Amino acid sequence: MKIIFICHGIGNGGAERVFTTLANYMSSHGNEIIVITTTPSNNDYNLRKGIEHICAFKDYGSGMFRVLFRLKTIRNTVLKCKPDCIVSFSASCNVQVLLSLIVTGSRIIISERTDPSRYPDKQVYRILRWILYPLSKKIIFQTDMAKDYFDFRIRRKGVIIPNPIRHDLPEAKIDREGTKIIGVGALCDQKNWFVALDACEIFFQNHPEYIFEIYGDGECKNKLNKTIQESEILRGRVFLKGFVSDIESKILEAKIYVSSSDYEGISNSMLEALAMGTPSICTDCPVGGAHAIIQNGVNGLLIPVGDYEAMAEAMSELADDIQLCHRLSKEAVKVRDKYSEEWIGRKWIQVISDVIYG
Fold it and tell me: Are residues 143 and 101 in the same domain?
């Protein structure tokens, strides 16, 4: 099969991680893959040799001209390459792909990667999504909650496929030592790291030996750093570490993993933390990604969105109860098989084959 994958970029985002993993998986199974990215993002994730990469971006200064160039590049590439199928990731990219390929007869699969009630935030994209999504052949959702947000025209094309866990993760480590808590994700409003900081203000009072490292970059970095430096309790114990390419090794070193998101699809870092046996605390946030993967008290701990006191209590439970950590870790590593790259990849191949061959 000849397949074009389209996404914003192959930078350090969660959608980009899944996008790159699937493109590489499809290529390794004998398919011809072309990747189109719509922004000049860093290539933090590597594409397999033999995958052609086209960047549909040109800085015209005006946002409208950039979008028009993007639409033209997508359309021309598709008409020239004549792929069997196009796969698009993320709401605004989905809208642009569907818009650019109207009346071409292209077989298009789109994928929602976060909470559709929150993103996209621009009204024009929300209107176009409602108009254009029914033109796709299939729509991949991560959770039932995300699919149920839409009306019947869109829901009837929906297929639930969770994120894959990469095959090359380090071996799981069940019994963790040390005093390091880790968080992974963009420094943005969605991730709401301030909840984790408020939790640490409480937790560190009884556990001063612990530190908290947050890996990621974003627009909230300065505000977060200011909050850290102004707190006697947090200063010297909380560290903003930026983006690193070997995040798996950092998660493997940690005693506890935390996610404080207000909303989320399925977090890749959460999946990888569980797969490597890291005792994990996550907010039970829309659109149900953590809830779909974690059974509270069985393979991880779920807390209400925004509840820093509950997060602090969960941190204390894991810091003080070695047996609880051991039980959670033993159950958590089972996600490695349940959501393996091979299993998820086969589900994608089945959907794509159904679209191409009917």
Answer: yes
CA distance 240 to 228: 9
What is d(CA 24, CA 291) in angstroms, rounded to the nearest whole number?
Answer: 28
Q: What's the sign of the alpha-carbon dihedral 183, 184, 187, 193?
A: negative
On whether both 157 and 206 belong to a single domain, the answer is no
What pLDDT, on the 0 to 100 scale, is given for residue 23?
Answer: 94
CATH number reported for the structural domain that contains residue 259 in this entry = 3.40.50.2000
Residues 158 and 181: their CA atoms lie apart, in Å, by 37
Contact call for residues 100 and 75 (beta carbons, < 8 A) = yes
User: Does residue 175 belong to any structural domain of this protein?
Assistant: no
Which residue range(s) make up the domain with 246? 180-338
Average pLDDT of every residue of the chain: 94
264, 287 Cβ separation under 8 angstroms? yes
Say if residue 93 is in the same domain as residue 38.
yes
pLDDT in tens, 311-323: 999 999 999 999 9
**Six token digits for residue 44:** 């933090």
Q: Which residue has the tokens 């084959």?
A: 353
CA dist 10 and 44 (Å) reads 6
- Token readout for 187 is 């420094």
Longest dimension (CA), the chain: 64
Integer Cα distance of 145 and 25 in angstroms: 27
In terms of Cβ atoms closer than 10 Å to its own Cβ (0-12, 13-18, 19+), residue 331 is middle
